[in-house]
Design brief:
heterodimer; A: alpha+beta; Peroxisomal Thiolase, Chain A, domain 1; OB fold (Dihydrolipoamide Acetyltransferase, E2P); 3 domains; 9-stranded mixed β-sheet; 5-stranded antiparallel β-sheet; 12 helices; about 25% helix; globular; B: alpha/beta; 5-stranded mixed β-sheet; 4-stranded mixed β-sheet; 15 helices
Chain lengths: ~475, ~400
């Protein structure tokens, strides 16, 4: 039996109120008012498709998973690197054992997420082991565009494996068609679309039914028996219209979270699937569609194990963890959509020293410290001599992963002089419960409640962006536990 | 057991440039200003100097690496000249090197010069710079006030100090230094301020406001050292000798192990203990006449009072507010205005502090002159509260 063995998701904490987008831009396009309902997820400045992917993985597998999957597929159209495999960064951030791990970035289409799932199914079916699919999206949108109103940021992770699954795969189809509802050219930042009515009538309403009907015929499942219909689209009427056309019950139609998250691109099908899996009951049929230059369709049936397993937070948890953001300028600044004066302190060379980065990647990518085998002292970074003055032993430290550890803030400040994309810059001395301490950046701090003693967990985030060369460096930051 | 440096070396002369935003001055101008005063004070010819040390903190700006900026600026006669950098302790390090050279007998007369040209960056505060290729990968991108502001968080947590009480004590530190600096024509900032001004100034790094920060300035200071015997043979009276010179560098323990709680600077305590022992001081609060400490930020000075054992642990807030370190207090601190009013041209600061101690001990401090001081202590702290280099120097009357 091939199917889903774990799943998880991540939504950035900030929720941009769509009203502020409309307030800023309706003078130019009054039509935006009609879309200005609810909120959308918004990456912090130090988040991108890779950092969100680490969070979705952790939601599914825990912060420090003890098992490495056989394959890691990262689906996105907004990966930070065009030539540096992004899934490898994710693999090291998850501290996966590279000895028997294949990695792949799956991209260039909104159905990259579901296409990656199809490939994961083949990997698991071939007996190679578990395949972890992560889809993550952080798309840029033009000021005052429809996309700005509709797109959100987020990630989802699904593990496909064999044996004792939460939902078994009943069948799948994939049908490519060069239907261009929108495109984004190489080297361009923004999507270019076509008239919605054409996309709906010639695209969704014709291409999706063809694939779904083929899947239903292949599996012998009746449309009326489908309990969850995952149909990611930024067009509000489309899922219901398709359900009606296909004979899927109206009650199965999944809300596309347009007013709470926005459309998270390649991640959206898996995000909605993750949400439905939280609620699914044994025997429920879940139909998952991916649309973009054709159509993927996968049919899962929840097993008796479905209720026994839950992700760490899940979509429902992340939905509840949002904080309203009403500063439209902050959204534009974080996404580098305006030519902002960052001050002279931002104007320093941020070259990445690749050889040094490589040497130190256990620390920077995987947050590995050292633990002295003689005196058990945990220390960061790992060093030749033990930091414990009573010990001081030479070369006794074994690698000790810090990524899943919690700690408390011993000292801190909020620095308004240093450059930060979101001033003030918070940092301080974090003392870990397992031992070990490090002065490190803090992110997503609530200034009113934060103080010495605050509990924190650590998260993989962007440390620095070299705008001159298009590089970004990552490291771990402490986030107050909530 | 080594006997230490006590009374082996004396200050033959000292000099200090005007500190400030010296838009007009090249580093050579600053050095020349300090050196000419120093040379005249020492009463020797330039060619009697046998070795020199140059302290500069930041080579990426103005003068670049190496010691030639000093030897070229002063046209030193092909003698050994060495550049020293050890964070904010650089100036005291140059003094230590010159003192050790004389004490060893390797040379009779040596020069220590510290200077920095900070005001060619185009913005306020210290220059933004790398902390090393690997460190930059994981150190927070913090400013100097950001580093030291953390002491306040640690201190508050340890002693359950009310936020406003601590802020008021910090304000008093700055008010006191400004009052002193107002009497010093060489200081960068020569205006008195009020507690309200300090308390309500714009926030820089919580809880450090603008007036909790020292200035940023250009400047140079220097000293010429020799043996007591040579000083006497040159006709010098009222000698000021080196009583102790201690340095302590973190090894990563505070930041990486143990119970350091962020409320104090461990290296200062270690260096101070050693310095008191070297100088034969048993009761610092009674025996030390005055101090010039590294008041890069008001909170740094406040915890330093405890770390130098001038206040009991947790007692600095009260002592500061009681005026124990004011000009008319028990142990006046920053009688020249401190980093607060002089700013902190990194390489110069340690020598600027020693210059003031020397003036005070020889009774030449003008309107700031304290009543009969016998022992002066200087202190520099460079780096982070948890990872730093600290120097403690004690000078005093040779005959005392």
């Amino acid at each position: 039996m091939i199917g889903i063995t774990a799943y998880g998701a991540y939504l950035p904490r900030a929720r941009l109120q769509k009203q502020v987008i409309a307030d800023a831009n309706a003078w130019f396009d009054s039509g935006l008012r009609g879309l200005a309902k609810g909120e959308k997820t918004m990456c912090n400045w130090d988040e991108d498709a890779i950092t969100m992917a680490t969070e979705a993985c952790a939601d599914a597998l825990g912060r420090a998973p003890d098992r490495t999957p056989a394959a890691l597929l990262l689906a996105s159209t907004s990966l930070p690197f065009a030539d540096r495999q992004n899934s490898v960064i994710l693999a090291e951030a998850m501290h996966f054992d590279p000895a028997n791990l294949r990695t792949l970035d799956v991209t260039c289409s909104q159905r990259a997420g579901t296409s990656a799932l199809l490939n994961a199914v083949d990997i698991a079916a071939a007996g190679r082991g578990d395949a972890l699919v992560v889809a993550s999206e952080h798309r840029l949108t033009k000021c005052a565009s429809r996309e700005e109103m509709l797109y959100g940021d987020g990630a989802a992770a699904v593990v496909i494996g064999a044996g004792d699954v939460l939902a078994e795969l009943v069948g799948s189809v994939s049908q490519p068609v060069d239907f261009i509802d929108h495109y984004r050219a190489e080297g361009r930042d923004y999507d270019v679309g076509w008239e919605e009515r054409w996309v709906r009538d010639e695209g969704y309403m014709k291409i999706v039914p063809q694939a779904v009907q083929a899947l239903l015929a292949q599996t012998g499942v009746e449309a009326a028996d489908i309990a969850h219909f995952v149909m990611p689209t930024d067009q509000r009427q489309v899922p219901g219209g398709l359900a009606k056309k296909l004979g899927i019950p109206d009650s199965a139609v999944t809300d596309n979270l347009l007013q709470s998250v926005g459309i998270t691109g390649t991640a959206h099908a898996m995000l909605l699937l993750a949400q439905r899996l939280e609620e699914a009951r044994p025997g429920d049929l879940l139909l998952v569609v991916g649309f973009g230059q054709g159509c993927d369709a996968l049919l899962f049936r929840a097993t008796s194990r479905i209720a026994e397993w839950q992700p760490q937070r899940g979509v429902s948890g992340w939905l509840a963890a949002g904080v309203p953001e009403t500063n439209y300028n902050k959204f534009q600044s974080f996404n580098d959509l305006i030519d902002k004066e960052l001050g002279k302190r931002a104007d320093v060379d941020k070259t990445a020293f690749l050889s040094a980065m490589y040497r130190n990647r256990a620390l920077t990518n995987s947050f590995i410290g050292g633990k002295c085998t003689k005196c058990q002292t945990v220390q960061i970074p790992r060093a030749h001599y033990c930091v414990n003055p009573e010990c001081g032993a030479l070369d006794t430290q074994e690698a000790y992963p810090m990524a899943g550890q919690r700690g408390k803030v011993a000292t801190w400040t909020a620095d308004r002089l240093t450059f930060d994309f979101n001033p003030p810059a918070y940092f301080g001395m974090v003392v870990f419960d397992c031992g070990g301490r490090l002065m490190m950046d803090l992110t997503e701090v609530d200034p009113d409640t934060f103080d010495t003693g605050a509990e924190v967990s650590v998260h993989f985030r962007i440390k620095q962006i070299d705008t001159q060369r298009g590089f970004r460096k990552y490291f771990w930051k402490a986030v107050p536990s909530r | 057991m080594a006997k230490g440096i006590r009374d082996k070396v004396v200050i033959l002369g000292a000099g200090c440039s005007k500190f400030g935003e010296r838009w007009d001055a090249e580093p050579a101008d600053l050095m020349t200003e300090a050196f000419e005063e120093c040379l005249a004070d020492a009463g020797i010819e330039k060619n009697q100097i046998e070795a020199a040390w140059q302290a500069t903190g930041i080579d990426a700006f103005s003068v670049g690496p190496g010691a030639m900026p000093l030897s070229i600026a002063l046209r030193l006669p092909y003698i050994p000249v060495t550049r020293l950098e050890n964070y904010c302790a650089s100036g005291t390090e140059a003094f230590r090197a010159a003192t050790y050279a004389v004490a060893s007998g390797a040379c009779d007369i040596a020069l220590a010069m510290g200077f920095e040209k900070l005001k060619d960056t185009g913005y306020g505060g210290l220059p933004q710079r790398s902390r090393g290729v690997t460190n930059d990968m994981y150190y927070p991108n913090l400013s100097a006030p950001g580093m030291f502001a953390q002491l306040a968080a640690g201190y508050r947590a340890k002693y359950k100090t009310d936020k406003q009480d601590l802020k008021r004590a910090m304000a008093h530190v700055s008010v006191k230094s400004h009052a002193n600096g107002a009497k010093n024509s060489k200081a960068h900032l020569q205006r008195a301020i009020t507690e309200d001004q300090a308390m309500n100034a714009p926030m820089i790094a919580e809880p450090i406001g603008l007036f909790d920060c020292c200035g940023v300035s250009d400047g140079a200071a220097c000293a010429i050292v020799t043996t007591p015997e040579i000083a006497r043979s040159l006709g010098k009276r009222d000698l000021v000798s080196v009583k102790a010179l201690q340095l302590c560098a973190s090894n990563g323990e505070e930041g990486g192990f143990g119970n350091w709680d962020g409320s104090y600077v461990a290296t200062t305590r270690i260096a101070a203990k050693r310095a008191y022992e070297e100088a034969g001081i048993k009761d610092p609060r009674r025996e030390v006449s005055m101090t010039e400490v590294h008041d890069c930020f008001s909170i740094t000075e406040l915890v330093t009072m405890e770390d130098l054992f001038l206040s009991p642990e947790g007692g600095a807030v009260k002592d500061v507010l009681d005026g124990a370190f004011d000009a008319d207090g028990e142990v006046p601190c920053q009688i020249d205005g401190g980093l607060k009013c002089f700013g902190h041209p990194i390489g110069a600061s340690g020598l600027r502090m020693l210059y003031e101690m020397y003036l005070q001990l020889t009774g030449r401090a003008g309107p700031r002159q304290l009543d009969d001081p016998k022992i002066g202590l200087t202190h520099n702290l460079g780096g982070f509260p948890h990872q730093n280099v600290v120097s403690v120097a004690i000078v005093g009357r040779y005959d005392a």
